[in-house]
Amino acid sequence: MTLITESKLRMMLKNGIPNPFPIQAGDKITPAATDFLRDRNIEIQDGRSVQRPKSSSSQREPELQIPVGISNRHIHLAPEHVQVLFGDGHELTKYRDLSQPGQFAATEQLTILGPKGFIKNVRILGPVRSESQVEISVTDGFQLGIHPPTRLSGSLADTPGITLIGPKGVVVLQQGVIVAKRHIHMSTENAKTFGVVDGDELIIRTAGERPVIFPDVVVRVHPEFSLDLHLDLDEGNSAGLKTGDLATVIGKNGMFMQRQGG
Ligand SMILES: [Zn+2]
Fold it and tell me: 6-13 and 31-39 helices cross at what angle (nearest 10)?
């Protein structure tokens, strides 16, 4: 027998709660846990009294959900650029932790300057990296006058440059500006649950007032990653999403999943 409590569900939230949520014969669920699921529009699939057919093909598989993280424009810096922009010996200071282990938003901010305009107070994310990289939205690109390609982080060949202005100095990057390609971080265990490997592309459907289907969300698997669908601000706004909303996996590598009754 399993006792399903609200606190157990809260712990599951990080890795996604299946919808519908299955309750097996012999399980017990507390009233608070029932409310918790109802508040999130998660259906309870009560297997305690219903006779399930033996054939697996007639069973509805639970939905797979992924929490959304919306990234605003931000900068990753190489150590030597931290020194130029903020002074010798300077180290980035943590403002708050990000969802991925070890990653943090720094208190330090910069102005970024393109051929047409500038944007002030752009957040730096730590820790430092081997190469400086600036991630902006397409909308930001119009303001700055640059039109970078959509890339996964670290893929910087043939990308436009930009000028970084800090309190102690200026760095002119010859390349390194990208529009971040949407992606999902997941642990090795998550990947097993979702039946995917690194590099697979998932089809994702969002909920809410402006539902959108993203057909090509690249999966990034690492033992340390926590489950998170990363979108930029343009994508988030177009779908009416905010960080913490849940999105549903509806297919993989161009194929929709087969579901009974869905
Ligand atoms: Zn990410």
Answer: 40
Q: How far is the CA of 195 from the centre of ligand 1 (A)?
A: 20
* Residue 80 CB contacts under 8 Å (≥ 6 apart), including other chains: none
The alpha carbon of 229 and the centre of ligand 1 are apart by a number of angstroms equal to: 7
Q: What is the amino acid identity at position 56? A: S
Ligand 1 centroid distance, CA of 108 (Å): 20
Domain boundaries, the chain: 1-46, 65-69+182-256, 71-180
Cα–ligand 1 centroid distance for 114 (angstroms) = 24
Residue-wise pLDDT tens digits, 79-110: 999 999 999 999 999 999 999 999 999 999 99
**What spacing in Å lies between the alpha carbon of 225 and ligand 1's midpoint?**
10
Distance 103 CA to ligand 1 centre (A): 10
The half-sphere exposure of 121 on its side-chain side, counting CA atoms within 13 A, is: 1
User: What is the phi-psi region of residue 200: left when phi exceeds 0, alpha when psi lies from -120 to 50, beta otherwise?
Assistant: beta
pTM: 0.75
List CB contacts of 216: < 8 A, sequence separation 6 or more. 182, 201, 203
CATH code of domain 65-69+182-256: 2.40.40.20
Query: What is the distance between the alpha carbons of residues 188 and 195, in angstroms, rounded to a whole number?
Result: 10
> Could you tell me the end-to-end alpha-carbon distance of the chain, in angstroms, rounded to an integer?
30
